[in-house]
Amino acid sequence: MNLAGFNECMPTAARMLAWGWDLQMPNGKFRRQFFKRAVLAATVGGAIAALAGLLGSSRRRAAGTQPDELLWLEEQEGARALDWVAQENARTLAAFAQGPAFEPLRGNILAALNQDGRIPWVSNYGGQYYNFWQDQAHPLGLWRRTTPAQYRKPDPHWETVLDLDELSRQEGVEFALSGITPLEPEYRYCLVSLSAGGGDAAEVREFDLLEKRFVPDGFSLPAAKSQVSWISRDELFVATDFGPDSLTRSGYPRSARRWRRGEPLTAARIVYEGAQQEDGVVATHDPEPGFERDYVFRLIDSRRVQTFLLQSDGGLLPLDVPLDATATGYREHLLVTLASDWEVGGRTYPAGSLLVANLEAFLAGARDFDVLFAPAPGRGLGGYDCTRDHLILRIMEDVSTRLEILTPERGAWRRAPLGDARSLSAIGAAAVRRDSNEYFLSVGEFLRPPALYCGNLDTADAPELLKQESPAFDAQRYEVSQHFAVSQDGTRVPYFQLSRRGIARDGSHPTLLTGYGGFEESLLPEYLGAGAIGWLERGGVHVVANIRGGGEYGPQWHQAALKRERHRAYEDFAAVAQDLVARGITVPARLGARGGSNGGLLVGNMLIRYPELFGSIVCEVPLLDMQRYTRLGAGASWIAEYGDPELPEEWAFLKTYSPFHNLRPGMACPPVLFCTAVNDDRTHPAHARKMAARMRQMGLDQAYFYESDAGGHGGSIDNEQAAFTEALVSEFLWRHLAA
Q1: Where are the domains of the chain?
Q2: From 3.40.50.300, 3.40.50.1820, 3.60.110.10, 3.40.309.10, which CATH number describes the 80-109+472-737 domain?
Q3: CA 442 to CA 427: how far, in whole Å?
Q4: Does the 3-51+119-468 domain belong in CATH 1.20.1250.20?
Q5: Are 77 and 678 spatial neighbours (Cβ–Cβ below 8 Å)?
Q6: Are the beta carbons of 43 and 15 closer than 8 angstroms?
Q7: Of residues 178, 353, 597, 658, which has the active-site annotation?
Q8: Catalytic-residue membership of 123
Q9: What is the average per-residue pLDDT within 642-658?
């Protein structure tokens, strides 16, 4: 399922998060890659992709299960496991965090993360701009607000709404702000999600924006992977852990319920209950005046969702669209984004298309669609957003983006460009408010700090520049270029190269290759910011590979590396590595690879399958044990992406790219650093722990391990922790690649 489709026409904060803007998530630049799935899913009113938990014990034994003497490392906070973590942390820190370069580097990264010249990205709630801000004085962060007039000033006056550092001191828990769900249209009350230590599980509390305090005896949920949506002032849709048997096998809430103020959670009435073998259920309310609707989403797996309209009598009316499509209402319209070809109404619409129809006519049986976007070679849809009267499409062409405005007029849709798109850049737009045609527009590039504009589609005026981020490094010394490698099956794979201007092609340059390649997520040109300090500023070359499995060219690019075809993503990444050598940029001894989450599985396969191509590897919050991944964290929800290890025919290909199962004594592996967090409740820290421990058992002492004590799947809860980890990674890579 392409979760990006869920962000359309939802409240402003959620929409802007879906564009990758760091509104509620701390440490956006370092966390964005890992949080993106959860952020996109949060636009349904509460972090679908982050609704993960430990699996039940009822699953049958995996096909061909091998004895695993390291199962004790799966005890997330077990005493023996934490003792091992402490020993490995000490070894890694002694090796890479004690040299003379480390502390100055950490300090420079931290200063860039905390610098005042960052853009305070905002959400419009009731005519005021809200922002989440972290700096040296407020490491856990301030949730604050100002007026639009103040925001336009160079130094706005901000009013603190919630001080996370003070709240954490009062309650003795380090809280991260993980979500805000406002009650429209008054915007006096909201539901605040607070995560202890930065994990996915969060408690939910009702908050009064006028009084700036939590509502006494208001709506409240204990820490869980919950999803909430306002129906009215006194009623919510809620999906959470309701007790025994209330979660699916992947740890998502199995039911969505209506919960009225004043009644116990146990009295909440079931709207829909799904099967335990599926991924979960979500219910949301769309408060658009004149078009109020209630939706129920049955999450079958990570690629398929069944969408229902909830009727006034409690009945569910399914939307008759493909299960792998995303469907949402926009005023009187139905918007459908296709992940596969769809033959309907006498026409065939190709995968990657965006279709529109009149919703009432569709429900009455009509199947007449207008095509708002059609895919083409080199071109895909990166998402869309809705103002009151317009759609704004984000179109990707060879991994650069441009915007297009679509306006319904007399039964047709008028098109016009929006903004000044540049080559090798990322441009995005989101509605300021759902009841107007105002929009925020952001423009950025790898080496160009982002700029934030505000415009109004009711006028022909150019958008107004609101904020320009201060540079975190001197970009004049660097250049960006795009290249294409040829993968093993002949596919052209794009990649970006960032380096000092005019570097010699003599193979001498320490080079860091990064990638992701999964879940239809695209790696677009985004400002490196503080991320440049630990690599570019040291003289390294930075490379971003747009391999299959991602969404850079639409759903076909993603589906080309699913399940048994997963090896295509790894072949693409290896082809980029080989092309960098062939072009004289580097040599294998000076080439590093870095990836996190699904990207951790990617670079784990570089370690096992292509060790001769790399001089060192950094593997962060990874999946590595593909035999037990469905039993760890949120793993069972990713079966549609990878395969089911409990089915012999699927374990047959899964084991070929399970790094943990392809380790062999005496392998010539490059040095590797595994990074994770003790409270990562999405990809369990056992993946990194067990891989490092197995390598050490085999005498592969070039394996290093570091586990932070907070931060969840993002690896850090504040800028100081993010700077420390980034400096550690930089030192590890530089020691091995620049010697």
Answers
A1: 3-51+119-468, 80-109+472-737
A2: 3.40.50.1820
A3: 6
A4: no
A5: yes
A6: yes
A7: 597
A8: no
A9: 98
d(CA 643, CA 567): 13
Residues in the chain: 739
Report which of 387, 414, 391, 388 is spatially closest to residue 403, judged by C-alpha positions. 391
423 catalytic? Reply is no
- Identify the CA nearest to 256 among candidates 276, 244, 239, 243: 239
**φ and ψ at 371, to 5 degrees?**
-95, 115
Distance CA 31, CA 347 (A): 42
Cis check for the bond before 216: say yes or no (omega within 30 of 0). no
Cα separation, 423 vs 402, whole angstroms? 9
Q: Is the dihedral of CA 68, 600, 248, 246 positive or negative?
A: positive
In tens, the pLDDT along 156-176 reads 999 999 999 999 999 999 999
Task: Say how far apart CA 352 and CA 349 lie, in whole Å.
Answer: 9
Single-letter residue type at 395: I
Structure tokens at 535: 């690599």
Instruction: Mark out the alpha helices in 195-286 (DSSP H runs).
Output: none
pLDDT tens by residue, 20-37: 222 333 233 322 222 222
Of 138, 509, 687, 713, which residue is the catalytic one?
A: 713
Please say whether the beta carbons of 488 and 570 come within 8 A.
no
- Maximum CA pair distance of the chain? 72
C-alpha pair distances (Å), 311 with each of 285, 294, 316, 319, 448: 12, 8, 6, 12, 49
Predicted confidence (pLDDT) per residue in 585-595, tens digit: 999 999 999 99
Rounded to an integer, what distance in angstroms lies between the CA atom of residue 136 and that of residue 138?
Answer: 6
Q: Please state, as a whole number, how many other Cβ atoms lie within 10 Å of the Cβ of residue 666.
A: 8
